[in-house]
Specification:
By secondary structure, the chain is mainly alpha-helical. It is about 70% helix and about 0% strand. The chain contains ten helices and no strands.
């Protein structure tokens, strides 16, 4: 009588050969939200795309409102063919750089204080910051203009810089504060336990940790300053900036140089944003 044969059990399938789980189909509401978001992004980017496109236009005369032909001549020496426009752009860059530096320093210190410490009057300080952000620019501009007139300060470059620092500080402070609140205080305590002075702790530990917030606040301040019109109009006097020059000649027609300069400023801002994002990812890795 022959012994019964036992067939070997099938080997379990390797984990690597397992089929990936099928993705769940998106619901109708999720698809609509996805496409709606892209429509909003396209709608916001459309004016920028028009400005960039018309920087390559070759208009007949001063009016640059209809496409007549492609050219690169305004991206060369002709970019500076209008002295008043060039001077206005230089003024805007000067104000934006100085205002960004001042607002970044003051806003970083304020954000550190508000994020790390509890003190009497902190609620009032928060209220004032958000009031500066939410208040209409007409209110801010007219208030500053009245103040400068009352103290008999001649309006010009200094008053514009002071006004820009005033409304940019709150944006930097809130951005830095959000970064400070998320920090681990034990890291700074460890640095002090190892013998670091308060200044060394701030320079070597605190500042590198909050640097992404500082850079983001500085970029926001620069963007707000360089294109500000209402507050600048109230506090500029005879000092002409890029937005004010565009407004003064808009009825006569805008030359292609306006679009070229706007495209350059936008491109530089995008490059800074990309560089900041790449640096932040490398630090987080």
């Amino acid at each position: 009588m022959s012994a019964p044969t036992i067939s070997p059990a099938p080997a379990p399938a390797a984990s690597g050969s397992a089929r990936p789980k099928a993705r769940k189909p998106k619901k109708t509401g999720e698809r609509l939200l996805h496409w709606f978001t892209w429509l909003i992004i396209i709608w916001l980017a459309l004016p920028i795309a028009v400005v960039i496109a018309f920087s390559f236009n070759n208009p007949h005369g001063r009016f640059n409102y209809s496409w007549t032909g492609f050219t690169l001549k305004y991206w060369g020496p002709k970019l500076f063919a209008i002295p008043n426009l060039t001077t206005a752009m230089e003024h805007s860059l000067l104000v934006a750089v100085v205002a960004t530096a001042g607002a970044t320093i003051l806003g970083t210190l304020a954000g550190l204080a508000l994020g790390k410490y509890k003190f009497r009057g902190q609620g009032v300080t928060n209220l004032v910051q958000f009031a500066c952000i939410s208040a209409p620019e007409v209110v801010l501009g007219s208030s500053l203009a009245t103040f400068f007139l009352q103290v008999r300060i001649q309006e010009g470059a200094l008053t514009v810089i002071a006004a820009h620092i005033m409304f940019c500080v709150s944006f930097v402070a809130i951005t830095v504060r959000a970064r400070v609140v998320g920090l681990d205080p034990s890291v700074e305590e460890a640095a002090r336990d190892l013998g670091a002075s308060p200044w060394e702790t701030f320079r070597l530990v605190t500042l590198p940790m909050i640097m992404p917030g500082v850079i983001a606040g500085a970029m926001l301040a620069f963007a707000l300053s360089i294109d500000d019109f209402i507050t600048t109009e109230f506090t500029s006097g005879s000092f002409m900036t890029y937005p004010l020059w565009i407004w003064s000649v808009s009825r006569q027609g805008l030359p292609p140089q306006v679009n070229v300069m706007g495209s350059i400023v936008f491109a530089v801002g995008v490059l800074f944003a990309i560089a900041n994002s790449v640096i932040s990812r490398r630090r987080a890795a």
